[in-house]
Amino acid sequence: MKKVKTIPEYWLFLMGMLLLLLITSCHRQQLVVDQIPLNTPGDAPIYVFGNFNNWDPGDNRYRLEKDSTGSYSISLPSGIGRINYKFSRGDWTTIEKNECGYDRENRSLIYGENATVYNQIAAWGDIEPMNCIHKTIVVESLPENSPDDPEIYFTSNVNDWNPGDVSYILEKDKKGRYFITLDKKADCLEYKFTLGNWETVEAAADLNDIENRELCFDNTDTIFVRIASWKTLDVKKKNSIVIVLEKLPEETFATDAIYLAGNFNNWDPGHTYYKFANDGYSSRYYHLTTNSQHIEFKITRGNWGSVEVSSTGRDIPNRGAWVEEADTLFLKVDRWKDR
User: Fold this and answer.
1) What CA–CA distance (Å, rounded) separates 314 from 296?
2) Mean pLDDT, the chain, whole residue set
């Protein structure tokens, strides 16, 4: 007969103490939203979601309660460690955005570090932002080797370092200075200036490379910079194509804004620069200028929740076109994802 081995009592004691320590080390976490956008619908529910609920933006277990002061709050289940989270009004089209309507980084907290964490929501994904923060960069001095009437581009980590992004061409003021006004996409960003490609990026006076410039959205609304030199003046020829939407879904309203999103604008589904114009009849069109020979893109109504899909409602592959092969592209949109 085999002898049955038993766990020594001191091991049972240690395991019990470890379990007790784990339980008592868990913290309950209170979240409070004490500021929401003024254009939030009056009866709108607000949810918190994150890595604790598989990023479900409409999980009823995590719906905040509104109190008499107008604040919203929720007590999260006990836990330990770090959580990442955001707020929404129930789905991915309504998640919170930054002051200018762009994606914001995930919020983060450590259980127990603060018993109550206060949050302010700046804007919602499906509603026009009301308090966009802007910053203007003025180039007060150009290098001597600048071409006549140059086309100067702003390239940054917020536009995927595209050196010839036509939505970031500097304008010229009455004094002949070049400038660009930027919406807040991130608290801080890095950037440089080019003449349309990396061969013509700005450089030091001795033509050596320079570090990326840095811009933070602080209390000042304008900054002034000088460009010492251009690396070369090898400006590349731009390609252009007119994209015509000759047929839209029946569920498209005349007031709907329609946008172009692709590898030329960092796949931004609602950038105002890439909004289709109305030809006055039944078609919409957009004149795209790009340094790329091949483009990939999709059509949206301003966000990825309203992107074009197949007639059966399924996602479709990216559209593609060789810009040099045709000057006009005629397309039809079968259906919108949300209609």
Assistant:
1) 19
2) 88
- Residue 145 is predicted with a pLDDT of 85
Instruction: Give 294-323 pLDDT, tens digit per residue.
Output: 999 999 999 999 999 999 999 999 999 998
pLDDT at 230: 95
Report how far residue 249's alpha carbon sits from residue 312's, in angstroms, rounded to the nearest whole number.
12
What pLDDT score was predicted for residue 26? Answer: 64
Rounded to the nearest 5 percent, the helix, strand and coil shares of the chain are 10, 40, 50
Q: Are strands 239-247 and 328-332 parallel, antiparallel or unpaired?
A: parallel
Q: Per-residue pLDDT tens for 49-84?
A: 999 999 999 999 999 999 999 999 999 988 888 999
Which of 180, 196, 230 is the last residue before a domain boundary? 230
Instruction: State the first-to-last Cα distance of the chain, in angstroms, to the nearest integer.
Output: 73
Q: Strand pairing of 277-278 and 284-290?
A: antiparallel
Whether residue 239 contacts residue 325, with contact meaning beta carbons closer than 8 Å, is answered with no
Task: Please say which residue of 103, 124, 145 terminates a domain.
Answer: 124
Instruction: Identify the pLDDT of residue 186.
Output: 86
Give residue for tokens 């006009």: 328
The span from the CA of 293 to the CA of 299, in Å, is 19
pLDDT, residue 20, reads 46
| Domain shared by 181 and 143, yes or no | yes
Domain containing residue 184 = 134-230
| Alpha carbon separation from 66 to 25, 42, 59, 62 (Å, rounded) | 29, 11, 17, 13
- Whether pLDDT at 1 is above 80: no
Report yes or no: 260 and 289 within 8 Å, Cβ to Cβ. no
Neighbours of 317 (CB within 10 A): 7
pLDDT at 9: 63
Q: Are the C-beta atoms of residues 336 and 252 closer than 8 Å to each other?
A: yes
Distance of CA 98 to the CA centre of its chain: 9
Cα separation, 132 vs 183, in Å, equals 7
Number of folded domains in the chain? 3
Does residue 2 fall inside a structural domain?
no
